[in-house]
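Request from the bench team (R.T.):
"We need a structural guess for the complex before ordering more flavin mononucleotide. Sequence and SMILES attached. Just send the tokens back."

Command: build protein-flavin mononucleotide structure.
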Amino acid sequence: MGPGITRGGAEGVTADIATPLTLPCGARIRNRLCKAAMTEGLADAGNRATDRHVTLYRRWAQGGAGLLITGNVQVDRRYLERAGNIVIDGQQDPRQLGALEALASAGQMRDTHLWMQLSHAGRQTPKLIATEPVGPSDIPLALPGGRFGTPRALRGEEIRDVIDRFAHAARIARQTGFTGVQIHSAHGYLLSEFLSPRVNIRDDEWGGPLEHRARLLLECVRAARVATGPEFAIAVKLNSADFQQGGFSFDECLRVIEMLNQEGLDLLEISGGTYEQPRLLAIEGLEPVFEEQVRASTRAREAYFFDYAVAARRLARMPLMVTGGFRTRAGMDEALSGGEVDLVGLGRPLCVDPDFPARILAGEIAAAPEVERRLRFGPGMLGPHSPIKLMKVLNGFAKIGWYYEQIYRLADGQDPDLALGGLRALLAYDRTEKAKARALRRP
Ligand SMILES: Cc1cc2nc3c(=O)[nH]c(=O)nc-3n(C[C@H](O)[C@H](O)[C@H](O)COP(=O)(O)O)c2cc1C
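Reply to R.T.: structure attached below.
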């Protein structure tokens, strides 16, 4: 464990998944299991939270995790990750504030903490939302299928506006009863794009050396802190690496962690990858995975960014969470026992079984069920001429679509349907996203 970490309640104790954790802001998380951010797609046509959010978060709060983080809430309605995102920007109406309050209280049943993830989709805004998204530079995503337009480079005053938007959304999160925010700086969205030397080729104060590329993230963190005060949790989700040649590297990640050490963060979540290289879900991208040598540990191999967290721990002064691949109690306890990570992030297991944290804490089960093997399409499935690249992309969307469908079921008060097929999920995903985008009230 790094020096100066505040871990009240756990000092001198070997932690396991049941050990409480006190964060620097004073918040006490009652166990080490966190539901990681997962986009819900449940907002109405005006991007307001709905009763379905309330049902979903009540279910997850009852499921036993100490901390829940919402799916990405967008700070600019012009640039969404998908049509069903909640948006907090200048155009709030009282109905949105009431809906957010209802969501905040549903997610805090059973003494659970609920944080709001804040994001700007940047160049990963689909064409269904904006034909011309924005980014640090005008470099388009290298993905087949024409789903994303070529971005326009943000002007200096627009970058300042992004910072104000993150601060405003953080203030609203606090005002409506959330206990923290997580600033999304991973997975190839806007803040992560600024960090990447491959996507950010600016030559002003926001591009070039890492200190410049990290400025947007750091200023968003500072502005959110000023907007919310010292007793509100502020977290960051950061890529260990983009895993792309010329992208944000692990060495740069470590340097950004050193910069973030000065910012009084309550949690740093380590993830990795982008739409072009979806390592966050251990999905194969179109280009080879570009990996730096990180000294491999022999422990907790199921969590695929764990070795990065072990290396990050030596520098990081804030509590750390790793997300991606945790499935067994043994793997989670092992990762926590050495103090390399302070929280275990869980995504997909909570779509498959919303009570997974409670059941694994009670010792009722030792692992999450495996569901993904049969979601892969064989190479012949779309006919002999299917380009392999398209196959890979479709497999990725089928997987994601399958989890989206399970989230919808939970939001409708149903149980997950583990028998749902990959193709059905893919078609439903496509249909729903298009219908929602058509219905969206545009700014
Ligand atoms: C359906 C789905 C939606 C997701 N949406 C988000 C999101 O909104 N924000 C985010 O940071 N990560 C998102 N993720 C990534 C998860 O937070 C997590 O990093 C990833 O699922 C790996 O963890 P796991 O192996 O426990 O699922 C999403 C993942 C899934 C499966």
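Two things stood out. The first strand starts at residue 21 and ends at 22. The longest helix spans residues 388-411.
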